[in-house]
Amino acid sequence: MTGIDEVARAAGVSTTTVSRALSGRGRVSERTRERVRRAADELGYVGSAAAASLASGRTENVGVVAPLRGPWFFATVLDGIASRLTPRGYDLTLYHLGDDPEQRRGVFERSLRRQRVDGLIVLSVHLDDDEIARLGALGLPIVGLGVPRPELPALRVDDTAVGRLATAHLLALGHRDIAHIGQTLPPGASPELDIPSRRRRGFEAAMGDAGIARPRFAEADFTVAGARAAARELLTGPDRPTAIFAASDEMAYGVLAVAGELGLSVPRDLSVVGVDGHDLGELFGLTTIDQFPHGQGARAGDAILAALGVTEAAAAPLPFELVVRTSTAPPPRPGHP
Amino acid sequence: MTGIDEVARAAGVSTTTVSRALSGRGRVSERTRERVRRAADELGYVGSAAAASLASGRTENVGVVAPLRGPWFFATVLDGIASRLTPRGYDLTLYHLGDDPEQRRGVFERSLRRQRVDGLIVLSVHLDDDEIARLGALGLPIVGLGVPRPELPALRVDDTAVGRLATAHLLALGHRDIAHIGQTLPPGASPELDIPSRRRRGFEAAMGDAGIARPRFAEADFTVAGARAAARELLTGPDRPTAIFAASDEMAYGVLAVAGELGLSVPRDLSVVGVDGHDLGELFGLTTIDQFPHGQGARAGDAILAALGVTEAAAAPLPFELVVRTSTAPPPRPGHP
DNA sequence: CTGAAAGCGCTTACAG
DNA sequence: CTGAAAGCGCTTACAG
Q1: Are A17 and A113 contained in the same domain?
Q2: Nearest residue of A to residue B259 by CA position?
Q3: Which of A168, A176, A195, B30 sits 20 to 30 Å CA-CA off A305?
């Protein structure tokens, strides 16, 4: 690999000047800068990340701490993040929080502490107090995306409003007996910032406004299988609901599948709404609240670049939008099966 | 951040010895090693990645070059890779090949040349000659996964056998009029290692063995939308096939959707087979050839670690397996609609 | 605007 | 088995 001194020689300047000309930090005459650039291009010079970051303290690398919340959602957000970092010359190092608790500890105790990144994006995970403390001790700019901890500055969708919107759509169609399938809080977590809790709260608020006191709720984790079990119980029990609001699209798919197995026609016998904007939603005709995960990633990328002083900050709430497809319709009129 | 000299002072040894004790390179007495370890733990010392890699030339970081072939597949493979790298203390830096050609050039011309990684895993992309040359010039161990270039040592599924297996399953059920939906070769690519081309080849070989000379083929890209268009044409044309073998599960979902729209019952009127092992396949009752993408990622991780001398190599062909669900059945008997 | 020189925090021959 | 010292390839006060 060609080094900075070869470029300096070729351009007839010092390495100091090469460094300044190429990085844009410090003044260099336009003529010199041009000459250095040309020499660097001709030699195909690209600086060593290790040397530059050891000397400067900057890595031009952003870490992404991610759990495994459904491969689709995760990859879509990641794509959005990369779409912003790459054009600015920032690399992206992934810190994957897997299932293994020991591995997870290693990420917080070792991997993240190697000073490989200038900043961190933390994707929607439940973090315990120790993990929060360790993130803080890093002394790095951090942007959370849906992280349920007040300690981290985080981008969030207004999930209560999401829950309200989904429910309002069903209420407007005439449904009264609406059930919600969501995930209850992990032990020790606070409901204030927890996404499923907020969606549920929005659901209950909308139902309350419509005069329905204790609407039905079924617990399920964020998987198709979990939602299937919950849906089966709801739909085979006595007086089944006419509509189900599932806390995610993948959960909604589970509901659709169970409906099919039970011989219920959607939306004639049952309306279903999900949340996310999953890429197979159109295929299923699923009505959903799209939360634009790719855009969320892009926003998180923008936010960390702003925190690093690379770009200007631009705050705005994360958007979401009702997408009506064919899984929702007015409820069946009693006596007209 | 505490540095190596603080550990040295605390342990009463030189920084040389600390480095050796902690890295395991070079001899250190067991007593000393223990003392150093304890001191490092107490101080919470984690070495600077930049300093270590500048001095040693090693980064303990692996790059993953990835295209955007369906977020689900990509994320699942990535999870598999991370599951092997993390326990060995290796980090993972993602080089995302997006849609923008200029950004893509930047990855090959700059990002990858910053010496941030010890080795590279390249996920199934079509690379042009220039890109191949640039990868070679990096002088790094590289492991491909399904990369259609003979220049890169790559892990591959026997995709011809996959095509054969899917087709044989349908033939065994009694189907004769089977169509294949797949993707034709991008210009300039060779069919020898191209995955869709090989699947098609397997399809044609199996059909040929069954005495069917020119089986039907429809072109579509690897998306639901593409497959829908192709399926619509196949299924609305004169004498529609009794079975369709789609080159991926997501494409198969598109076929299922079109069948539903046309009022065809699966598997009574039409059998459908996909490839991948997509996580929603069970929901759809889709018969598929599972190629275990998570396991493929794990194997790629193992392979690059072996190439880096971290672990022993263990070669074996990538497995695949027919998973029969409810989307395939014998064809309808003529006259028995 | 430009350069000589120190220094970033490790690793590793080399010597003992 | 252990350590003093050079060096990895940049960046950046400091001086001019």
Answers
A1: no
A2: A283
A3: A195
Our count of domains for chain B comes to: 3
- Considering only CA atoms, name the residue closest to the C1' of nucleotide D7: B55
pLDDT tens for B199-232 read 999 999 999 999 999 999 999 999 899 999 999 9
Domain assignment of residue B212, yes or no: yes
Pairwise CA distance, residues A108 & A104, whole Å:
7
**Statement to judge: residues A179 and A245 lie in one domain:** yes
pLDDT tens for residues B109-161? 999 999 999 999 999 888 999 999 999 999 999 999 999 899 998 999 999 99
Q: Which two tokens stand for residue A317?
A: 């709430």
Query: What pLDDT band is residue A199 in, cutting at 50, 70 and 90?
Result: very high
| Per-residue confidence band for B334, with pLDDT thresholds at 50, 70 and 90 | low
Phi, psi at residue A56, to the nearest 5°?
Answer: -100, -20
Q: Quick one: A195 and A277 in the same domain?
A: yes
Report pTM.
0.94
Tell whether A92 is within 8 A of chain B (Cβ): yes
Q: Tens of pLDDT along A278-300?
A: 999 999 999 999 999 999 999 99
Domain membership flag for residue B322: no
CA distance A81 to A298: 5
DSSP reduced 3-state for B133? helix
Q: Touching check for B95 and chain A: CB below 8 Å?
A: yes
Give the integer Cα–Cα distance in Å for A218 and A240: 12
Report the distance from CA of residue A21 to the C1' of nucleotide D12 in Å, as an integer: 14
Could you list the residue range(s) of the whole structural domain that residue B37 is in? 4-47
CATH number at residue A104: 3.40.50.2300
Q: Are residues B88 and B141 in the same domain?
A: yes
User: How far is Cα B286 from Cα B252, in angstroms, rounded to an integer?
Assistant: 8
Segment 109-168 of chain A within 8 Å of chain B by CB: 109-111, 113-116
Identity of the residue in A44, A78, A92 whose CB atom sits nearest the CB atom of B93: A92
